[in-house]
Specification:
This protein is mainly beta. The protein contains 1 helix and 9 strands. It has one domain: Porin (Beta Barrel), CATH 2.40.160.20. 10% of the residues lie in helices and 58% in strands.
Length: 186
């Protein structure tokens, strides 16, 4: 399952690389290479690929924590449809799917005579996050834009991932506030 998911994500990223012009773009044009710096719901970065005037694909990597306090990371993708791509301000809708992994540590084993002198064992917990939402993007210049969005999501496992911009609504349902900046580079 994990290998298949990783293969799909890599394939989508490769297809995006092969297809096109990258964000940000406005009426003045944008740089040929883009990078997203993301502050929420998980600090991380993304690489945006423009598939058409309105449609953008992003490969995403984020860092958070597990509910038990261990380190966690996410690897995902985002598809965004921008209503007015050439405008300084524009609304958009987006969908996102992410693979989540949390590193956990457990203690196991016993020494001779059952004294409990076993060492720490590294283990991991995996899950997924599927989201949909709306946002607004503001072009700040020829190669820079900022964005904010609200995402409703569903976790496949509740014990995997937490972040400062993610709130649990009930069970596996979440609400996230995403903030970021897109930088077009030459």
């Amino acid at each position: 399952m994990r290998t298949t998911l990783l293969a799909v994500l890599v394939s989508l990223a490769a297809a995006g690389l092969a297809s096109a012009q990258q964000e940000p773009t406005d009426h003045n044009g944008g740089g040929p290479i883009g990078v997203d710096l993301i502050a929420g719901p998980a600090p991380g970065f993304g690489v945006p690929f423009r598939l058409s005037d309105h449609l953008t694909y992003r490969a995403l990597v984020g860092f958070g924590s597990s509910p038990s306090g261990g380190a966690a990371w996410s690897l995902g993708n985002n598809l965004r449809y921008t209503l007015r791509p050439d405008a300084d301000w524009s609304a958009y809708v987006s969908v996102q799917a992410s693979y989540l992994h949390a590193a956990t540590t457990s203690y196991g084993g016993t020494g001779s005579g059952g004294t409990g002198s076993g060492g720490a064992l590294g283990t991991g917990v995996n899950g997924g996050l599927f989201c949909g939402g709306v946002g607004v993007r503001r072009n700040l210049g020829r190669r820079t834009s900022v964005y904010a969005e609200a995402l409703y999501g569903r976790l496949t496992s509740t014990g995997v991932y937490d972040s400062w911009g993610m709130w649990r609504l009930s069970g596996a349902n979440t609400l996230s506030a995403a903030l970021g900046a897109t930088l077009g580079l030459k």
